[in-house]
Amino acid sequence: MKEWYLLIKIRNFAEASIVQGMLEENNIPVQMLNKKDSVYHFGDIEIYVPVTLKDLAKDLLNNALLN
C-alpha cells in the first residue's frame, strides 16, 4: 500500500479539478478527498499524492501558482 502525502487543501471544486488534472498530466497519481459539507458548503477538498512523488508535485504546484 502506498503512503499518501497531503499536498494541498482547496475550497473550490473546480480549482481542485484543475490541480488534479495538472498532476495527472505529469504522471502523478492523485487521491482527492472531498470534506466539503453538501448542505452548508464549508470545508475543504484535500489532494493527496504518493509520498515518493511529493517533491515533484510541490514543484509543479508552485510553478503553476507563480505563472
Task: Explain what you see.
By secondary structure, the protein is α+β, with helices and mostly antiparallel strands. The protein has one domain (4-56). Helix content is 39%, strand content 25%. The chain contains 2 helices and 3 strands, in the order βαββα. It has a 3-stranded antiparallel β-sheet with strand order 1-3-2. The protein is globular and about 35 Å long. The termini are far apart. The mean pLDDT is 90.
Helix-strand blueprint:
Blueprint: E1 4-10, H1 13-25, E2 31-34, E3 45-50, H2 54-66
Antiparallel strand pairs: 1-3, 2-3
Summarize the structure.
The chain is α+β, with helices and mostly antiparallel strands and 67 residues long. The chain is built from two helices and three strands; from the N terminus they run βαββα.
What attributes characterize this protein structure?
67 residues; alpha+beta; 3-stranded antiparallel β-sheet; 2 helices
Uncertain segments are none
Number of domains: 1
Instruction: Please count the beta strands (DSSP E, at least 2 residues each).
Output: 3
Largest sheet: 3 strands, antiparallel
Compressed to H and E, one letter per element, the order equals: EHEEH
Spatial order of the strands forming the largest sheet = 1-3-2
Mean pLDDT: 90
What would the principal axes of the Cα set say about the shape? globular
Number of contiguous helices: 2
The amount of helix comes to: 25-40%
From the alpha-carbon coordinates, what is the Rg to the nearest angstrom? 12 Å
The N- and C-terminal alpha carbons lie at a distance of 35 Å
Strand content: 25-35%
